[in-house]
Amino acid sequence: MRDATDTPIQYDPAFTLDERVAVYRCIHTRRDVRGQFRHDPVPDEVLARLLEAAHHAPSVGFMQPWDFIVIRDPAVKKKVHAAFACAQAEATEMFENEQRERYRRLKLEGILDAPVGICITCDRARAGKVVLGRTHQPEMDLYSAVCAVENLWLAARAENLGVGWVSILDYNALREVLGIPPEIQPIAYLCVGSVTHFYAKPELEVAGWRTRLPLHDLVWFDGWHKRTGNEPLLDAIG
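Structure (tokenized):
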């Protein structure tokens, strides 16, 4: 069946109230999952939908710089986990005193627990030397690949699957494990799978590491730290 995005025929883009509510619920209940993974396999048709959602992310110049490496082999996962353990040991030493001890107690990955790993990469040369929209901000290809991460993450939440982004990894070590060429930039290693539960709040907030900043303190108008005349919107933000 052809998707609506594959045809030039216009269609009604309006969302119903229930659909809007579902989108916002998905956004607000998305979590970075670390320790709640189940070992149930992710069905191929579900995994295909996640990858399709990621592939429909916005990209500057429509360059679509991403590739997706799906990892299911336990032996490969063990190598990725070894790379994490090395980076984790280095990271631990960057914190001091009580914070270091709190850091050691955190569960920061589910590499061996999640049934699927997905590495998203960025091919920075995919669209040639000059790319529309990237002429003055060359890093826009990297940001585009991150949009693919977010699309996959939200799609997974809609499928009642958890995702954990393992950022404590040395890129060169990950390249070696997965055979990624040196000119290709790894963007994210994601752990994906069904979970026992989702936390009501982000896990790091539950653990007391950090709390969510008030949006009211982060919104400005017509310039840095300017607010005059926009009190109604600020009141709506809360």
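The mean pLDDT is 94. Residues 74-92 form the longest helix (19 residues).
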